[in-house]
Amino acid sequence: MTRSKAYLSLLAVLFCLWQTATAQDLASFEKRVHVKTLPNGLTVLLLQRPQAPVFSFFTLVDAGDAQDPQGKTGLAHMMEHMAFKGTENIGTTDAAAEKAALAKVEAAYAAYDRENQRRVGRDAAKVAELKAAWEKAIAEADEYVIKNEFGEIVERNGGVGLNASTGDDSTEYYYSLPANRLELWAFLESERFLDPVLREFYKERDVVMEERRMRTDSSSIGRLVEQFLSVAYDGSPYHRPGIGYASDLRHFSATDAGNFFHIYYVPSNMVVALVGDLDPDATFATLERYFGRIPSGPKPEEYVTEQTPQSAERTVVLKDPSQPFYIEGYQRPNYRDKDNEVYSVISSVLSDGRTSRLYRTLVRDKKIAVAAAGFSGFPGDKYRNLYAIYAVPSRGHTGAEMASAIHEIIARLKSDGLTPEELKMVKTRSRASLLRGLANNQGLASSLATNQLRYGDWREMFRHLDRIDAVTNDDVKRVANEIFVDTNRTVGILENQGASKTSNRGGK
Amino acid sequence: MKRSIKVSTILLAITCAPLLAQNAATSAPQPTAPPATSWKQVAIPQLPPFKPQPPKRIVLANGMVVFLTENHELPFIAGNAMIRGGAEDEPASKTGLVEIYGESWRTGGTEKLSGDQLDDLLEARAAKVETGAAEADTTINFNCLKGDFDDVFAVFVDLLRHPAFREEKLLLAKRQLESSISRRNDETEEIASAQQDILGYGRQSVLARQPEYATVEAITRQDLLDWHKQHATPNNIILGIVGDFDSHEMEATLRKAFGEWPKGAKVAEAKPLIAPEKPGLYLVDKNDVNQSEVRMIAPGIVRRNPDYFALKVMNEILGGGFSSRLFSNLRTKAGLAYSVGGGVGAEWDHPGLTVLEIGTKTETTIDAIRGLWEQIDQMKQQPPTEDELKRAKDAILNSFIFNFDTPGKVLREQETYEFHGYPANFLETYRTGVEKVTTADVARVANQYLHRDQMRVLVVGNASEFSKQLAGLGQVTTLDITIPEPPSAQGAAAPGK
Lengths: 508, 497
Fold this sequence. Notes:
The complex is a heterodimer of chains A (508) and B (497).
Chain A: H1 5-17, H2 26-32, E1 33-37, E2 43-48, E3 54-61, H3 75-82, H4 95-117, H5 124-142, H6 149-156, E4 160-166, E5 171-178, H7 182-194, H8 201-217, H9 220-232, H10 246-249, H11 254-264, E6 270-276, H12 280-291, E7 314-320, E8 325-332, H13 340-351, H14 357-365, E9 369-378, E10 385-393, H15 399-416, H16 420-437, H17 441-455, H18 460-470, H19 473-483, E11 489-496
Parallel strand pairs in A: 2-6, 7-11
Antiparallel strand pairs in A: 1-2, 3-5, 3-6, 4-5, 8-10, 8-11, 9-10
Helix pairs in contact in A: 1-18, 3-11, 4-5, 7-12, 13-18, 13-19, 14-15, 15-19, 16-18
Chain B: E1 3-4, E2 56-59, E3 65-70, E4 76-84, H1 97-107, H2 115-123, E5 128-133, E6 137-145, H3 149-161, H4 167-182, H5 188-201, H6 213-217, H7 221-231, E7 237-243, H8 247-258, E8 280-285, E9 291-299, E10 301-302, H9 308-319, H10 325-333, E11 340-343, E12 346-347, E13 353-361, H11 365-381, H12 386-398, H13 407-420, H14 426-436, H15 439-449, E14 456-461, H16 467-471, E15 476-478
């Protein structure tokens, strides 16, 4: 284990905050973290935290919506849903018969979809016939399904927080269990990435369409964000809705999801972190036994189309029955940029708490907004992304007022940067926030896995702090002047149409 | 932008309990053993016994109840005080008073320091002192690095004893609340939640009423001062502190800070009126959506009800997670919804609400209603199998440890029991209660508490596309959710003064 000097100096700083002499001081933290790369390329981290006989894990896959193939947006997220459907050993009464039945479903779907998409010579009767054949094949395959057995095993064993999420940059799976379920967990989690059976795919596609209706179509902010991102980006996969376009959701198949799985769900592209009351030797032995079963595969190609730097301001105005909302974004480099922590400092000063500049100006003094904040990584930060600032106008106030107030704040940031007190406050807060996070198994598992995957070393969760400590006021001014430029800006305004369409038909 | 598989849990369950490994194997796995090929083969060793130290309970002479839990893992100290009396107890003409109080208590500062000065002082130390309000109580809490405890605790005490409620911050809180009133009909979910309370508790109930422009405008600084004087008295406070301290020293600190504080008058606790609207179909039209939110609502129970345990098990079977009936039948099997769930609700000191909910595309609104009805019928007509019962009980009992796996959770449990007058061992009672539940118990409570004709069926959605079919199910009452204009007509869009 090699440590950088910076890391050591940081340890010293943190140690001052960490006065208590307990078994858990910071020096012991590193001793309690164990990292191993299995022969198949899977990286596993384990942090012992024996406070209670429980553990949490975080499985991180280095693929997200940005990896969705053209014409199949939403596929990464769909695959995440499918990872709850079981395997040949979980969720079926007869794996072999089911496999044959599912192959028939795919063949029938392909035939139906091909006919259905025909631009010339589409035969409606034939489409209906093929559709019926596909539905019949589904009904036959469903005969072998034990519904939700994967979730049921987790739940009946005391699992809590069973969930997963897909972002533009990555996909993550997590929950917590009592510590005596370690081997059971190793079985379940390795099974699901060894051999997921994509059963009930097309019903789950309906579920995801409902998720899209809920998050995007039927939500005013959802509608604005979809329009905003489609304009802010071109080229970059970030311009597409992560949940998928409605037509892609009606089109892609289980075969597509299987292809996605085989490319991206390979051990070299995944990290698993465990935190809790676990013995390292016994745990690693168990992990090797179960996760070692997953065949190795090459790290998938990393290239995606790069976002061209912006040269003209872009604006989206959505006239909507809802109350107004304002967002603007400025392109910035990805998270590997040397100035990444300068953006963190700017976000903290703009957004955190009642001393933040956005709160003090827009909410407290001008009283034109109920909330406002700035943040990096909209909608992800693996690639060139947006530094976004939003404001929720108070009753009677408009997006234009938000814009001018935000621009005044930005102008001041560019000319004067931060006060020494602000800079000090940000650094203190970052340190305390890292420390606070060390008391939570699930949060720690997430941090360890994320830093390992994104930097190749979990210690970056501490080095990040070191780099924040190194940020100067000149850095803040320089970066602010680089990115906060009109021609680098995209504006999204939700404008209230006036009369709310939520009707009022005379009461009872 | 994250999306996730959401298991809709309307009922924030006490999740739960422990050592019942259903897979009997107890032998440790052989290091060389091949991996299991079925989950049933995996050995589940005994969970080591785990009994966290209960917090130390101290009652000061003036009646203040204190709980202390030492936790030396990290150099932080956090405290939370619950104060009896909440939004349930505010006058109807000033609905919103306690919410405004909870906000401007902190922002309004103390007699010595303005709220803005407190912000500077605390943020420089990465510390928090915050106040808030709920139905039955208000709260004040702090969280700081151990080394800053003296400074931060001084702020906490000063704010508890000598808040100033500066007028400018009252005005700010009022503008904020008015803005949230103006936004309350924007999102389906928010509309449904507000109407759910109205239908389930009754339009006149303190549990359902919403602040309006007029009631917010009526709130004065004197109201806040009076509320504080009346409620923030030591005999009305339960204070819990957890973190890196020595209990003896902390006790001395607290006695010094609060020992001289004289007792106040006991606050009368009114029972909230509950008078549900009549069962039937209720509609809110929202024509900018393509998904309907359906809720079926009825009165639930108080946790003291002896049927609580059987109902927790029934809820687990009906709507409690990935393997529940609602999830399996309406989401997995029918593909009708992303968000579906529900059960019979329980509250600490008044009946909760029974709510079954589903969000489905406009075209399948009626199917979703019928689907929920069918699940209610089946819950009554088809008692759980032994395996279904075992699944539900295992889920509750095996996850029981997550109720007390951190010192903070243990402390909060005890504060909550103390506040609502439940026995300190309620969690243990709960575990044994769940262990005893049988399939017959579940069948009995299903028949006693679930009645499809006694539900208030609320639909928020794009009515023009399904209102005809909805009328086919029975008489439909259209709900008027228009936001009443402010009394001062010119106040329509009063920009901040």
